[in-house]
């Protein structure tokens, strides 16, 4: 989003979260958006808390910030939120994952005015795209980022809003440990949707051949879920055939 908007607009600064421990080594590192901003020569601001924050601009574009914006700060600018779902469906923290898990035939991007209620602001723009059998979180998020930048670009010159419909509201709860566990009593399509929704960033979890593994890719054969790429605990990603050879 930042790269695409910076190519067409004068971005005053990036507002992002403070540096945090990252990766297995837990070394303190910058958010990915900060790395992009520094490469592009864009000023970066990283307040620990936003209480009393003054945007200093008329419009702020919000994308995956990951924290609530205080109401008094919302009143100081027009905050345009880029949300990767067809609101009011899948308000909340994990709209792409939940759409894939539910087997939705389509999703999209909605640009809304940020309001105190979660993802309930009026809509400035919305566009849908189909979800294919091969789509996973990675492909959908990339498509949503591209579309989101295009929609923001259209909205910025003259934002106009319509209220969200009252019907069809659903909530995309944050992904927790239970959401990662595959329940083999569920149907093969449901299991595949779960794998797709959690790849390549989180991973679905299961026990195979007595070993705990993360399943990154799978397909359906003869009505059953067949793993294609797995990662044993403490090991590397590998083809499922290589995993089976190692077990033998």
Q: In CATH, what is the class of the largest domain? A: Alpha Beta
Overall pLDDT: 96
Q: What is the overall shape?
A: globular
- Unreliable segments (pLDDT under 50, ≥5 consecutive)? none
- What letter string, H or E per element, gives the SSE order? HEEEHEEHEEHEEHEHHEEEEH
| Count of domain modules | 2
From the coordinates shown, what is the CATH architecture of the largest domain?
3-Layer(aba) Sandwich
Estimate percent helicity: 25-40%
**What is the rounded distance between the termini?**
46 Å
Strand content: 25-35%
Count of DSSP-assigned helices: 8
- CATH names the topology of the largest domain as Rossmann fold
Helix/sheet category: alpha/beta
Main beta sheet strand tally, sense and closure: 4 strands, mixed
Question: What is the gyration radius calculated from CA atoms?
Answer: 20 Å
What order do the strands of the largest sheet run in, or round the barrel if closed? 5-6-8-9
The counted number of beta strands is: 14
| CATH homolog superfamily of the largest domain | Formyl transferase, N-terminal domain
Please supply descriptive tags for the structure shown above.
4-stranded mixed sheet; alpha/beta; single chain; Methionyl-tRNA Fmet Formyltransferase, Chain A, domain 2; 27% strand; Rossmann fold; 27% helix
